[in-house]
């Protein structure tokens, strides 16, 4: 049985077997108390070993980090704050953990130190909680869409088109880097490469997602995406997970309504289903976490025009590191000013200048802006980016030409607007940005098991 179940049990006197990793061992000359954790929940179960029953050699290797199997009886606990404990009859040590070398000791460790030993940090209370919350959020995402008739579409990770423009790409090749085949004019000859052309890891599943929406009606993708941005920030990873719903017959209003409902559902799901882990995170790392989560589920998001947002920023009298004029791409400091100081709640910013947004966004009548939406969150800044898509072949084609995008990469996408085009919309939610918000962590490296960032691909 898992410890999470045992701790809720009142079957006093029954025989039990528990297996897990020792957090601490203490005691006196009559009895040893072992705090055991098996990863099923943040709480430990207390194992009581009567020293009259156990030889010294049995208990000596039971140290912090060792893995043991305990057979015994579940009894009501007299200790404060715990319902049950296990009276041990037998203890088998599966794996020892030499206290001189085991890096995780009882004292708290810094997040920086734990990042260096990311292969072991799931053994800590904090990362146990984060990884359980991560799992619950992944499950809730599938549940949300499945319950609403969306289909999970698997878009490719390897792509030959680099037109999405969402960020720099990682190349995928089997060519020998030390002996590259060249064409007559001295360029790399990709016809000899694995796919017969230059390929990369995808930055987004959206373009293929649109094909899904224009056939299945409502789809979502949920998978890894890759961006070779050399930006060392607490909000960027080189490999991150993204959720991208795409819906036929949705306009920008429908898209915003879905984004708001989706985020509130996920946060509400965490509040309902991850209570103990959230309480732990609230106590250890962020005393306002649970309050902030509740606040977001209970209040409407502000909907604001980009133009209006820039006016508020300019009239704020605030000295920003990067001053902002109409046409500028908002920095995190601007986004957070709007959300945290001006409106004090999430903001959906819409109708951005077309120059700073992707080619596929629906053009507004004004000829200057597009029907883009970014959802901005407290502590995070941008958590979602989305738009209504340009469904008109003529307008999309003109934009593609204007931006000099290669026909050979984009022809199949343009064809969706040639045959049975439909109004449609979608967005991308960064899974780790969501997790930053839900766990209260401050650095995106701490909400993914094995972070990939510039100069770091360990484990
Ligand atoms: P930002 O401006 O924050 O760099 P973006 O505008 O480049 O993000 P989009 O292309 O709109 O991001 O991607 C959709 C979502 O994916 C973003 O709203 C964000 O939640 C997430 N995201 C984007 N880049 C990263 C990254 N490098 N690491 C983690 N999440 C990311
Ligand atoms: Mn964006």
Protein model, in words:
- The protein has about 450 residues and is α+β, with helices and mostly antiparallel strands.
- Helix content is about 30%, strand content about 25%.
- The strands form three sheets. The chain has an eight-stranded mixed β-sheet, sandwiched between helices. A five-stranded mixed beta barrel has the order 1-2-3-5-4.
- Strand 2 and strand 3 (about 45-50) form a beta hairpin.
- The chain is elongated.
- The two termini are about 30 Å apart.
- Adenosine-5'-triphosphate (ATP) binds near residues 166, 167 and 236.
- Adenosine-5'-triphosphate binds next to strand 11, strand 15, strand 16 and helix 13.
Task: Describe the secondary-structure layout.
Layout: H1 3-6, E1 15-27, E2 31-37, E3 45-50, H2 56-59, E4 67-76, E5 84-95, H3 111-116, H4 125-147, E6 151-152, E7 158-159, E8 171-172, E9 199-201, H5 206-216, E10 218-226, E11 239-248, H6 252-273, H7 275-284, H8 289-298, E12 302-305, H9 306-315, H10 332-343, E13 347-353, E14 369-377, E15 381-388, H11 393-402, H12 407-415, E16 424-430, H13 431-439
Parallel strand pairs: 3-5, 6-10, 12-13
Antiparallel strand pairs: 1-2, 1-4, 2-3, 4-5, 7-9, 8-9, 10-11, 11-16, 13-14, 14-15, 15-16
Helix pairs in contact: 4-6, 4-7, 4-13, 6-8
